[in-house]
């Protein structure tokens, strides 16, 4: 078998050690072009299966059509590079790789056919290795969780690889998810780029292309070659921090604001509680009730649980009858004073804060909407439309209502 230093770039040595130590389950491998993250995942799967006779693997792409020319070929390369081609059988239809001494299998699945994933079985051992290649193509963490729940059965140890180039926008679900994953003890997040790879592996033409792009378009270079999140330019809120808001912090909050946004049909009902730190120009969003088709009794009960002192709640004024229903159930409710330009002014006021801190565990929808709120582009994509889009902004509206009085200028409401 080949020396591993000829197969694994130096940047991945710590990850290789972590895999051998078997203390980690989830390996998020992000990086730029030429970082060899996919090569590393392929080598580790082949090594692991040859080391563990009960281990099988499933490799996935969002679109099954791309499996042959990506993960399959990458694993065939790893087998050849390790010098063990004589021990593996390569099949195209159905696509699989078979370790001849034991019959262990590497299977390939496209997430565009979820039923095939759910029914994936192996006759010997269990599926220990799962690899999501280009996992930014998947629709969200929920889709990946569903697949993992289907595949992670029958074994005590799993190694799951997620390889991808980070999307440009910080608001992309995957970039947001990584901020949460880094806090998990069973997870390793690794970033790599071509600069840590031996030059002979990449070749002179690759290096010349990278240098040319760096000289002519540094933003593209940072994103494509270094794997940095450079942004799309359309992010509305660039002052968002997603982190846990601790119990001690909550106990110190003395400027709590509460807002409510009604939702009917496809739109959700939203109730939020936040703390406004006027001196430090920050808000802390720490409580969320977000539900479709919520009834008045359920809503009132949820509000009373969070707000036992029956402090004021500022509510959307377009639903007076719904507001009256909550008042009849003991909610101390005041209708927001909307006016021309109130949306624009409210969003601008939030943009101007030094920081908007959101607890993503207790307020997942606020975290999703605030980080995902972007300006809309014109039809040709050349510029952005004027005004803020009126979609996926239910928690943002609730926050605007909650902070209504804090947005006054000279004692005159801007609403």
Question: What are the key terms here?
Answer:
alpha/beta; 415 residues; disordered C terminus; eight-stranded mixed beta sheet; 15 helices; seven-stranded mixed beta sheet
Bulk shape: elongated
Largest sheet: 8 strands, mixed
Order of helices and strands: HEHEHEEEHEHEHEHHHEHEEEHEHEHEHH
Low-confidence residue ranges: 409-415
Count of alpha and pi helical runs: 15
Report strand %. Answer: 15-25%
Distance between the termini: 72 Å
Walk me through what this model shows:
It is a single chain. 34% of the residues lie in helices and 21% in strands. With 415 residues, the chain is an alpha/beta fold. An 8-stranded mixed sheet has the order 3-4-5-2-6-7-1-8. The longest helix has 15 residues, at 37-51. It is elongated, with a radius of gyration of 26 Å. It starts with 12 loop residues before the first helix and ends in a 13-residue tail after the last helix. Mean pLDDT is 92; it is low at 409-415.
Detail the topology: elements first, then pairings.
Elements (H helix, E strand, L loop, with lengths): L12 H9 L4 E6 L5 H15 L3 E7 L6 H14 L6 E5 L2 E5 L4 E7 L3 H5 L7 E8 L7 H11 L7 E6 L8 H9 L5 E6 L6 H4 L1 H13 L1 H7 L15 E3 L4 H6 L3 E6 L7 E9 L4 E10 L4 H11 L6 E3 L4 H9 L4 E3 L6 H11 L2 E4 L5 H9 L21 H9 L13
Parallel strand pairs: 1-7, 1-8, 2-5, 2-6, 6-7, 9-15, 10-13, 12-15, 13-14
Antiparallel strand pairs: 3-4, 4-5, 10-11, 11-12
Helix pairs in contact: 2-3, 8-9
């Amino acid at each position: 078998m080949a020396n591993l230093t000829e197969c694994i770039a130096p940047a991945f040595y710590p990850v290789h050690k972590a895999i051998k130590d078997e203390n980690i389950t989830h390996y998020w491998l992000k990086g730029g072009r030429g970082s060899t993250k996919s090569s590393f995942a392929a080598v580790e799967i082949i090594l692991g299966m040859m080391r563990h006779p009960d281990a099988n693997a499933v490799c996935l792409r969002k679109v099954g059509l791309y499996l042959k020319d990506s993960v399959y070929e990458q694993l065939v390369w790893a087998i050849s590079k390790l010098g063990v081609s004589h021990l593996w059988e390569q099949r195209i239809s159905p696509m699989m790789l078979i370790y001849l001494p034991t019959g262990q299998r590497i299977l390939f699945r496209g997430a565009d056919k979820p039923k095939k994933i759910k029914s994936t079985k192996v006759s010997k051992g269990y599926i220990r290795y799962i690899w999501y290649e280009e996992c930014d193509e998947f629709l969200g963490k929920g889709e990946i969780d569903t697949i993992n729940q289907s595949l992670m059965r029958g074994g005590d140890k799993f190694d799951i690889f997620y390889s991808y180039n980070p999307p440009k926008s910080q608001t992309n679900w995957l970039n947001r998810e990584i901020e949460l994953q880094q806090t998990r003890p069973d997870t390793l997040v690794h970033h790599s780029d071509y600069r840590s790879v031996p030059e002979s592996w990449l070749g002179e033409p690759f290096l010349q292309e990278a240098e040319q792009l760096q000289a002519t378009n540094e933003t593209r270079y940072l994103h494509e070659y270094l794997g940095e999140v450079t942004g799309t330019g359309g992010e509305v809120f660039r002052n968002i921090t997603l982190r846990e808001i601790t119990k001690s912090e909550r106990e110190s909050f003395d400027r709590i604001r509460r807002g409510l946004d009604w939702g009917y049909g496809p739109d959700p009902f939203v109730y939020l509680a936040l703390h406004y730190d006027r001196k430090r120009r920050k808000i802390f969003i720490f409580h969320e009730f977000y539900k479709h088709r919520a009834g008045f009794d359920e809503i009132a009960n949820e509000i009373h649980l969070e707000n036992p002192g029956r402090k004021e709640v500022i509510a959307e004024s377009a639903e007076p009858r719904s507001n009256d229903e909550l008042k009849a159930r003991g909610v101390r409710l005041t209708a927001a004073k909307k006016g021309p330009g109130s949306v624009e002014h409210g969003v601008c006021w939030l943009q101007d804060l030094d920081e908007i801190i959101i607890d993503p565990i207790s307020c997942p929808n606020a975290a999703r909407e605030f980080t995902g709120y972007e300006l809309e582009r014109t039809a040709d994509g050349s510029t952005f439309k004027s005004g803020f889009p009126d979609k996926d902004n239910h928690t943002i509206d609730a926050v605007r209502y909650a902070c209504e009085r804090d947005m006054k200028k000279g004692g005159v409401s801007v609403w």
